[in-house]
Task: inverse folding
């Protein structure tokens, strides 16, 4: 006896006939299938209301109500970082919901397989995308409170885009109501008001956003009803900067009035921590979803490339592909000497007296004795490594020096900027080499690696700096780094 639809079953919907190709997920209340629209060949995800255990009549009715509530909510929204819906219907006595099929893997799975925290810049980029979805939901009338944000409920696509996939416990905010009807969420990520102590609002989602960022930066789930202390995150991951830690601490305050007032305000604080602002993606209404190969799965991504690396392969475009997004920046690059608002985190001009985002007065900076500024070295020309491995090729820009090259070691809190752990068969040492500035040059130094480093086919003597020149080829185990000027 099947507890799901057999492969090959054709489900009759109102807007299409869907052939079941595979089961891709199973929860307590339903099953998710990968299906193909027989008319167009497009691939969709089909969610079926099928409880894992027999329910009493009143429990079954409540399950149907929650299933329909989630489906109608997804059908009512449209955001590039949230899964889109197609139709809700009933077939042979069961409810079905057709929605966008998302290629990728959950952030929870990514962290588990890496067995290491995310790089700070990657964690911020992903969390900024989540903040934009939350701001969009909170801007609806009435506002929609997501209530269950965590790494398991968002997918990271091979293109680096975040997608919300689960709206099962989202609810609309009811003005004047003292508390939620049902206290629901996930321990550790949920704020105090979500444990039945009050009604959730936009600031409740700010807490879950901070808790999710905590998980990404530490690879550990947050403790229930616990606000991190200064230095706590850095003790678990020394590469995290104090200003980023402060963002998490403020978002996870137990008193909601002490948190960021909105997801937008938290996004602005995170944008100020990035070397490059996350662009806003403008997407026209989606056409039919992309047809993908039948052996694809909803949670299986293309080979994972190192954090901060930019894929060099162009995405495949077919006759049914979505329109290419138009990318425009939404936040200006913060200028040197910028003053950050203590209320919302926005970076302001050095001479500003009030915050341009929320209007709060900026702290008065006492005048310092005039000192002639120290001469600054001229900036180095932009350069990058073209990284070639058995699993793919990508570009790694040399943005911040020094850059450590090696293999991560979570037991020692060691996370090199260019991590070869997933792309080399063990030849690279944990602390293999480093790229740094010496005068007006980029310099590569083997720092005593076990198996050595080749440059242009010759062994590089350990602890002897080698000035890099355009076209230099560095070989470390199975990985080749081609040094290029940009």
Result:
């Amino acid at each position: 006896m099947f507890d799901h639809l057999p492969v090959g079953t054709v489900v009759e919907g109102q807007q299409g006939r869907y052939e079941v190709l595979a089961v891709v997920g199973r929860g307590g209340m339903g099953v998710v299938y990968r299906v193909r629209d027989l008319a167009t060949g497009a691939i969709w995800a089909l969610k079926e209301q099928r409880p894992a255990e027999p329910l009493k009549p009143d429990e079954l009715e409540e399950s149907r109500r929650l299933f329909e509530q989630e489906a109608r909510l997804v059908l009512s929204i449209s955001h590039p970082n949230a899964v889109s819906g197609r139709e809700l219907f009933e077939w042979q006595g069961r409810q079905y919901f057709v929605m966008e099929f998302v290629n990728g893997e959950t952030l929870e799975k990514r962290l588990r397989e890496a067995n290491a925290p995310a790089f700070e810049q990657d964690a911020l980029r992903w969390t900024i995308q989540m903040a934009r979805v939350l701001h969009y939901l909170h801007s609806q009338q009435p506002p929609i409170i997501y209530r269950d944000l965590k790494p398991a409920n968002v997918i990271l696509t091979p293109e680096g885009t975040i997608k919300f996939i689960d709206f099962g416990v989202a609810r609309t905010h009811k003005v004047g109501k003292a508390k939620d009807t049902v206290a629901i969420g996930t321990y550790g990520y949920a704020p105090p008001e979500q444990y039945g102590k009050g009604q959730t609002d936009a600031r409740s989602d700010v807490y879950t956003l901070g808790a999710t960022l905590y998980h990404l930066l530490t690879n550990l789930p947050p403790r229930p009803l616990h606000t991190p202390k200064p230095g706590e995150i850095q003790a678990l991951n020394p590469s995290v900067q104090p200003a980023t830690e402060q963002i998490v601490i403020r978002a996870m305050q137990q008193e909601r009035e002490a948190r960021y007032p909105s997801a937008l305000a938290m996004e602005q604080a995170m944008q100020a921590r990035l070397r490059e602002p996350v662009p806003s993606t403008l997407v026209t209404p989606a056409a039919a979803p992309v047809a993908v190969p039948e052996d694809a799965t909803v949670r299986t991504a293309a080979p994972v490339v190192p954090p901060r690396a930019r894929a060099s392969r162009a995405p495949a475009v077919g006759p049914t592909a979505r329109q290419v997004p138009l990318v425009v920046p939404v936040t200006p690059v913060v200028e040197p000497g910028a003053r950050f608002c203590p209320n919302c985190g926005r970076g302001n001009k050095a001479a500003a007296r009030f915050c341009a985002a929320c209007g709060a007065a900026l702290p008065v900076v006492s005048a310092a004795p005039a000192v002639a500024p120290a001469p600054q070295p001229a900036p180095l020309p932009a350069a990058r490594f073209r990284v070639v491995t058995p699993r793919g090729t990508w570009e790694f820009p040399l943005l911040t020096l020094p850059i450590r090259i090696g293999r991560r070691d979570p037991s020692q809190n060691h996370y090199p900027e260019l991590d070869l752990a997933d792309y080399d068969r063990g030849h690279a040492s944990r602390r293999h080499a480093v790229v740094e500035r010496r005068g007006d040059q980029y310099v590569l130094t083997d720092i005593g690696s076990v198996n050595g480093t080749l440059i242009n086919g010759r062994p590089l003597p350990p602890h002897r700096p080698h000035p890099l020149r355009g076209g230099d080829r560095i070989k470390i185990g199975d990985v080749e780094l081609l040094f290029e000027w940009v």
About this structure: Confidence is low (pLDDT under 50) at residues 173-183, 282-336, 366-370. Residues 383-485 form a domain with the Tumour Suppressor Smad4 fold (CATH 2.60.200.20).
